[in-house]
Amino acid sequence: MRKKIIAANWKMNMTQAESARFVESFLRDLGEITDVEVVIVPPFTAIAKVIEALGRAQNIKVGAQNMYWEKSGAFTGEISAALLRDLFVHYVVLGHSERRTLFGETDEIVNPKVHAAHEATLHPIVCIGETLEQRDKGNVEKILSIQLRGSLAGLKPKELQETVIAYEPVWAIGTGRNATPEQAQEAHAFVRKTLREMADDATAERVRIQYGGSVKPENARELMSQPDIDGALVGGASLDPRSFVQIVKAARER
């Protein structure tokens, strides 16, 4: 059985002091948990503080929100996989819709980042998802297939198994709207089907696929009860420790 993975994407929020207070409250309310993997993804400036605040907390990892594919060099404003590993980061979010929409990232940009992450033994969380216009035109599967095949091109089966896919319908991110559990499951099932075509059945069954897009305590349980939804990439609701605790606990009640 695939272990559920719940990630908190704080985006451009949380100072170091706010991050430390969040972790303290989160750990106190969460208690001992081993059957769900939790990832906190702070801004770069708070990564070290979050790791320090987590201490010896079991099964809680730290991720980064982006990275560049080069190992080092004259790339002002960028950060490499090696620099993230130096901070003991385990995950990195790549290809988020905000990176694609606001900063022009394409599958051709995401792909070398994914390869660089694996080379540095970072686990990429690769985001894919359609816009409302693409959904209304009936192009959901076409868009997801293009993004999957482009972003993950050239990965070996073992690398695919160590990659997390985050299906985030763009029209549901930060809007308060979310896909119904049935819509989300349909998309996740298609993603797994595509992974079978890209690799093999065993690989596809091991890849974890998160849902992201206005995940809240009120809808988390029903979403994660679907057979192909293996967790959540949580945005706004992850900024409140009590809210995020409820979402993590919902992953246990499947």
Q: Give the uncertain stretches in residue-range form.
A: none
Structural class: alpha/beta
- What is the first-to-last residue Cα distance? 12 Å
CATH class: Alpha Beta
Mean pLDDT: 95
Q: Can you describe this structure?
A:
- By secondary structure, the protein is α/β, with parallel strands linked by helices.
- It contains 12 helices and 8 strands.
- The protein has an 8-stranded parallel β-barrel, surrounded by 6 helices.
- Strand 1, helix 1 (16-30) and strand 2 form a beta-alpha-beta unit.
- The model has no long low-confidence stretch (mean pLDDT 95).
In terms of topology, how is this protein built?
Layout: E1 4-9, H1 16-30, E2 36-41, H2 47-54, E3 60-64, H3 81-86, E4 91-94, H4 97-103, H5 107-119, E5 123-128, H6 132-136, H7 140-151, H8 157-161, E6 164-167, H9 181-198, H10 201-206, E7 208-212, H11 217-224, E8 231-234, H12 241-252
Parallel strand pairs: 1-2, 1-8, 2-3, 3-4, 4-5, 5-6, 6-7, 7-8
Helix pairs in contact: 1-2, 1-12, 5-7, 7-9, 11-12
Q: Nutshell version of this structure?
A:
This protein is of the alpha/beta class and about 250 residues long.
List keywords for this structure.
globular, about 15% strand, TIM Barrel, about 250 residues, alpha/beta
